[in-house]
């Protein structure tokens, strides 16, 4: 049994802890996202489901054009290939665990698609 700390998963001190399942023999990957006021990723999608567990604060999620506020103890699922984003629209920080149903994360950004570039990452 391996036990990892958030510090081991962050690419830099204070960075976003990122667990890549393939690196640890797991079939899922995740971020531990700390979103300050006004922060959050722009519109994007994945070829697999992404599940968000909000731990602290409130985040505004948009999934396939539907926008809702989500608070502590609530869960959002963005289905595979669904365009989605979230933003912290409050004055307080938010904390969520963003679970990718894949051993490696793959993201297509809306802005790359609009520009006609190859967006898979």
How would the blueprint of this fold be written?
Elements: H1 6-9, E1 18-19, E2 29-35, E3 44-45, E4 50-56, E5 59-63, E6 66-70, E7 75-78, E8 84-87, E9 94-100, E10 108-109, H2 110-114
Description:
The structure is a single chain. By secondary structure, the protein is mainly β. It has a single domain, classed as Jelly Rolls (Sandwich), CATH 2.60.120.10. Helix content is about 5%, strand content about 35%. The strands form three sheets. Strands 1-2-9-4-7 form a five-stranded antiparallel beta sheet, with no helix packed on it. A three-stranded antiparallel beta sheet has the order 6-5-8, with no helix packed on it. A two-stranded antiparallel sheet has the order 3-10. A hairpin with a 2-residue loop joins β5 and β6. The longest helix has 5 residues, at about 110-115. It is globular. It starts with 5 loop residues before the first helix and ends in a 7-residue tail after the last helix.
């Amino acid at each position: 049994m391996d036990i990892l700390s958030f510090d081991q998963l962050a690419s830099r001190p204070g960075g976003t802890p990122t667990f890549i399942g393939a690196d640890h023999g797991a079939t899922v990957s995740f971020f531990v996202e700390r979103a300050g006021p006004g922060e959050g990723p722009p519109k994007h999608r994945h070829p697999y489901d992404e599940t968000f567990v909000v731990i602290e604060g409130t985040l505004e999620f948009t999934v396939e054009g539907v926008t809702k506020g989500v608070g502590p103890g609530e869960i959002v699922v963005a289905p595979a290939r669904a365009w989605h984003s979230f933003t912290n629209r409050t004055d307080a920080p938010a904390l969520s665990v963003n679970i990718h149903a894949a051993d490696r994360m793959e993201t297509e950004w809306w802005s790359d698609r609009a520009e006609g570039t190859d967006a898979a990452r």
